[in-house]
From TrEMBL, chains A, B:
Transmembrane residue ranges: 101-121, 186-211, 232-254, 260-276, 288-306, 326-348, 368-385, 439-459, 466-485, 513-538
Source species, domain of life: Eukaryota
Sorted UniProt keywords: Antiport, ATP-binding, CBS domain, Chloride, Endosome, Ion transport, Membrane, Nucleotide-binding, Repeat, Transmembrane, Transmembrane helix, Transport
Any one annotated GO CC term: synaptic vesicle
Name of this protein: Chloride channel protein
Domain CBS residue range list: 598-662, 695-753
């Protein structure tokens, strides 16, 4: 799921909105060191231009990087205007208050809409997932659970067997049991799955190509200040919501959490466009998007906005364990951490390799076919195994759950000792029954299946999240380990390792906790979140007692995974697609200097610059025609090469067009000047054109001896687009964000051309 | 509790360690654009200096700001050296591994030591607090609780009455009851309190003045990159630990959480000094300190490292409520939020005003007297009221607790309806008994008392934390509101507001929850943490169900408080003491330009600069003698004023001293040059002195037109000490962090001279 960035090969970009600068002049007569007279004619000269602002000034082109400093100062400016105005009239005051509150309003709206969507998606997925197996006679739009909820079988294990709910075979042939019925159900299950996934992939293909994948890598890039038009658009929102439902219910090994985050960000973008405060300022917009990104990331796990069964829990998988954990258990927990790390590494390596192959070979040309094939294989292999047939989140919550007395599931088929009178809350460890051993086998198969299929699923041209599948892998592994430890502890109380903490007849080991820890470890291995992950796991399960086991596992898995490669799955995909993303985490430790990175290189043509008062309109126009740079430095003179400012291509074009129309006497041969006062010219010359107002007088500069380490830091922390390189006041060259990324790639022995070209 | 920063009136500070630069040269022959020959003689010339590095290079003076970029690049450099070395031998490899792990080791050690200290302090405080009332006959070092723990009275309400524990009066006179005994106990209580606080304040005065206050404002400043020698020293650690115990047990209205954070940071500093990786690099040291700061901030609330009664809860006040909360209850919750905000504002304003008075008037001259007086007043007023007599954290946990069936406390004196057979878990709302009404009065008095006395207590010359007192205020108010709502709901089921959620005989209202919410609100109002605060409250109470009430209250209180003033108590104290702290949160929105802030001002003497190849040793020495600047810009020539670099005062001094001793032929009249090659001089001249190696070739520059907003951003994000101001390559002036802070103060209409002068 990648973008074509080939059109971004421009490397001069401007820093300030020219209108800002001139306003600075006017607004600062009080404090500015410039003398009032300067101010006056400075202001006077450009009044005629100020009252007709450039139409598309301050907008960025697609696939370009925004300039954070500039956006920030523009917002400050706007804010200043509003506050000063608000004193004039009640109406203005109200408007300013509204403006101040718009942030909260936007967040509220985002919360409501994305929450609702999440809820709707939940319900739709439940229904369609069950639709693959059967239908509710009382009301076909009921899911299996809803359908039987109304029935009068109340005991727990009969709840999912009720007359209203009929499997397809039963409905069509009348026979609920038997090989024939089984085969028919199997067949229809596969058919539904193929139908759903086909619809999903075709919708994405036709209407919104950006709707595929989890979207998190792209959103991270966008948040870091990159423009991808339409990626958060209305169409993407609509299509992603629909196709997400289809994809999840088709039974593919993918989760809906990641895409939900994308959906939430689309909502954010939608509501941003309602308020000029955000729609007109890419920086502010991203602030808001970031909030909704984060909120959604947590919400995806915690809040179940629509909850038909009204259990008041805020958490997705609520667990309540009755036993504490013991120091000795840290060993298996840490082993699970190691497993998580290894799984993370394996998954990332394999998935990236597969995605690269998809991009480079014929495979990429037949996305629909690919999806169909994978869905088919998944359905065929998944149906026979009860643990892969059901939806993954159901599986996880069963694995997390402790075996109460009333549990009917296979996993809880323990041999109760007779003299235990009534089911009490904390049941002592018991020997496992045949059901448990049977379940262990099925879980082992499910584990292998999930591991393999997920690698091929993530990255197909449909909405696909990663959290739930990797959690499933971890939960399965964890549960298996948990049961193993539990049985060992039961059968070998006398072993040294158990003696001092597990007396006979006590409830020592909670397999569900192991599943939880395993899930955390695997999620950590894939995404490389540790602390935030553990917090999420709290939210997820409400288990505040288990911070130490979770932490231990999460940290271990991060260490193990980092040992094989620093990048998480999202960073890897960002790199694979060559997005211009400057990761805060990866340190640049090489000792190169700015002079090694700046353009022009030794054999390049010299830097394209303007002089402050000797260039003619014609020269400028040819320069614009011949080059495709986004901006040009302005120097005192070609001899001295002393930098005075930076001018943006678009502004230059507009200003000259403007002048040619409005100002008579401006011809090709008339001189363009950026100084305060017009240069002394012979009377014969045509009227010169003053362009100081579009000159950015504070371009960012570093000396050629600045270590690249520092330069990278500056780009990262100040969010620059480019900065100029000087030596003792002389302009030598320019470094853009892209040059920096290229250089970093080069230093990491990657192909520098991969950046933004794929 | 402030520092004398008067000696910091120097405003030129250097950016790079010169040795770095030269190493850059040598290590980059491969990539550097400089020609090999340059490299060689560049390297050659300075070899003789490199093998004898300057003794105290890269160290900062006291009360100076560190340069983050520089520290970072120094660490990178060190890291690079180690990794390259590690390939040489096994021993080096092991050393590099140790180095890589030292971070974890340090954190582990810090955790252990500060955890132990926290535990010891806990126990000591319990003991000494009870010592004010009586003594344990079986073992005088037992606290009241421990003393009676061993006794055989097991029923809950007899637990604190046991023969081994005797109040002083009983011990001395034999009479436990009666007015005489009461007066005697009262008297001794006051006496002990005075003794403790006197010891505390005198110890602080004599041994470690830095041990006073909560320490958080200073630590925030230190973490932001400021040097305060000894503030995290061994003595401070020792004295603060001891005096903290004394101060808390003296019964003053102060908490130990803030000071514990200071103690933890002292531990951090202590262990940092064991590893050169941290001791030699102020940046890395601060990273570590920041971790322990954060860890301690959470740990102060959560982990009870030594827990004599072995309840396995990780949290300080564990609460378990059996009822959910209802939408309608959000109204009182939000009202509590408003109260919290108002309390926060009132407290900050009053406390700051009082501290300013202390600083400016005679009052400040008699800290001991002040402490004694406040202690006396506190003790006299606190003893009669049971809710102020006991330790504040006990009070809070009682207020948080839900009234179980076995509760004996006054607050749970409800009238049980007879037909309730046995005490069940969730008790329906009941009418309040006389005890409750009595308690309400006492709580109201306690509330007023706490509010007033805390204002005068915080900021005295003893260790004093703020979290517990402000939580107490909130908890009291919350509990009062809670009981009020509960009784209303019980007596007026029919009212509209209760009808739809509170049936008769149901358990609708949980007063303890109100106390919790109130505590969060007040803490939020004072410290202005919201999210982090809510997280802490989870940790504090383990109540994950109550995120919405807590959030509502915390956010409301922040809004209300912010409406009266953006700064929390810590920021206010930082400002009061004029620490050089650049707060990330406060936006600089004024439209001033760099040229308005830079030195020299219009009427100042010109900038003190060196020229690259015309200054003589004598000139330099006079310049150093006449000025006290920390560094000097180097320009091509006084005419062109083109900036080529920046040289640090100390390095200059050392280099010349060095040269005069080692290099013969270097005399006062010999020329100092910073260029690659020696200038052409008549043969008669003495041998010139090359100083390029101490020249920082990449000083940070901005143009004079750069908006201050941007400059502030740069200082904040890059952690600069100063940056040079140029116009078209000409050096105009310099801006230091202090200038920036001064300017910001000025713009906020505060006295700019307050910065670092108090």
């Amino acid at each position: 799921c990648r973008l074509d960035l080939s059109q971004t090969d421009r490397y001069y970009e401007s820093v300030y909105n020219p209108c800002e600068i001139s306003r600075v002049y006017i607004s600062n007569q009080c404090v500015s060191s410039a003398t009032p007279t300067e101010e006056m004619n400075g202001a006077g000269n450009l009044m005629d231009f100020l009252d007709e602002p450039f139409p598309d000034v301050s907008t960025y082109e697609d696939f370009h990087t925004i300039d954070w400093l500039r956006e920030k100062s523009r917002d400050t400016d706007r804010h200043r205007k509003i506050t000063s105005k608000s004193k004039e009239s009640i109406w203005e005051l109200i408007k300013s208050l509204l403006d101040a509150w718009s942030g909260w309003v936007v967040m509220l709206l985002i919360g409501l809409l994305s929450g609702t969507l999440a809820g709707v998606i939940d319900l739709a997925v439940d229904w369609m997932t069950d639709l693959k197996e059967g239908v509710c006679l009382s009301a076909f739009w009921y899911s299996h659970e809803q359908c039987c909820w109304t029935s009068n079988e109340t005991t727990f294990d009969d709840r999912d067997k009720c007359p209203q709910w009929q499997k397809w075979a039963e409905l069509m042939t009348g026979h609920a049991e038997g090989a024939g019925a089984y085969v028919l159900n199997y067949f229809l299950y596969i058919l539904w799955a193929l139908l759903f996934s086909f619809l999903a992939v075709s919708l994405v293909r036709v209407f919104a190509p950006y709707a595929c994948g989890s979207g998190i890598p792209e959103i991270k890039t966008i948040l870091s200040g990159f423009i991808i038009r339409g990626y958060l658009g209305k169409w993407t929102l609509l299509i992603k919501t629909v196709t997400l439902v289809l994809a999840v219910s088709s039974g593919l090994s993918l989760g809906k959490e990641g895409p939900l985050v994308h959906v939430a960000c689309c909502c954010g973008n939608l509501f941003c466009s309602l308020f000029s405060k955000y729609s007109k300022n890419e920086g502010k917009r991203r602030e808001t998007l970031w909030r909704s990104f984060f909120a959604a990331l947590v919400a995806a796990f915690t809040l179940r906005s629509i909850n038909p069964f009204g259990n008041s829990r805020l958490v997705l998988f609520y667990v309540e364990y009755h036993t504490p954990w013991y120091m000795a258990e840290l060993v298996p927990f840490i082993l699970l951490g190691v497993f998580g790390g290894l799984w993370g590494t394996l998954f990332i390596r394999a998935n990236i390799a597969w995605c690269r192959r998809r991009k480079t070979t014929q495979l990429g040309k037949y996305p629909v076919l690919e999806v169909i094939a994978v869905t088919g294989i998944t359905a065929v292999l998944a149906y026979p195994n009860p643990y892969t047939r059901r939806s993954t989140s159901e599986l996880i919550s069963e694995l997390f759950n402790d075996c109460g007395a009333l549990e009917s599931s296979q996993l809880c088929d323990y041999i109760n000792n007779p003299n235990m009178s009534r089911p009490v809350d904390d049941i002592p460890d018991r020997p496992a029954g045949p059901g448990v051993y049977n379940a262990l086998w099925q879980l082992a198969l499910a584990l292998i299946f999930k591991i393999v299929i997920t690698i091929f699923t993530f990255g197909m041209k449909i909405p696909s999240g990663l959290f739930i599948p990797s959690m499933a892998v971890g939960a399965i592994a964890g549960r298996i380990v948990g049961i193993a430890v539990e049985q060992m502890a039961y059968h070998h109380h006398d072993w040294i390792i158990f003696k001092n903490w597990c007396r006979p007849g006590a409830d020592c080991v909670t397999p569900g906790l192991y599943a939880m820890v395993g899930a955390a470890a695997c999620l950590g291995g894939v995404t490389r979140m540790t602390v935030s992950l553990v917090v999420i796991m709290f939210e997820l399960t409400g288990g505040l007692e288990y911070i130490v086991p979770l932490m231990a596992a999460a940290v271990t898995s991060k260490w193990v995974a980092d040992a094989f490669g620093k990048e998480g799955i999202y960073e890897s995909h960002i790199q694979l697609n060559g997005y211009p993303y400057l990761d805060v985490r990866d340190e640049f430790t090489h000792r190169t200097l700015a002079t090694d990175v700046m353009r022009p290189r030794r054999n390049d043509p010299p830097l394209a610059v303007l002089t402050q008062d000797t260039t003619t309109v014609e020269d400028v126009e040819t320069l614009i025609k011949d080059t495709d740079y986004n901006g040009f430095p302005v120097v005192v003179s070609r001899e001295s090469e002393r930098l005075i400012g930076f001018v943006q291509r678009r502004d230059l074009t507009l200003a000259i067009k403007n002048a040619r129309q409005k100002q008579d006497g401006v011809v090709s041969s008339s001189v363009v000047y950026f100084t305060e006062d017009a240069p002394q010219l012979p009377a014969s010359n045509p009227q010169p054109l003053k362009l100081r107002r579009i000159l950015n007088l504070s371009p960012f500069t570093v000396t050629d001896h600045t270590p690249m380490e520092t330069v990278v830091d500056i780009f990262r922390k100040l969010g620059l687009r480019q900065c100029l390189v000087t030596r003792s006041g002389r302009l030598l060259g320019i470094i853009t964000k892209k040059d920096v990324l290229r250089h970093m790639a080069q230093m990491m022995n990657q192909d520098p051309e991969s950046i933004m070209f794929n």
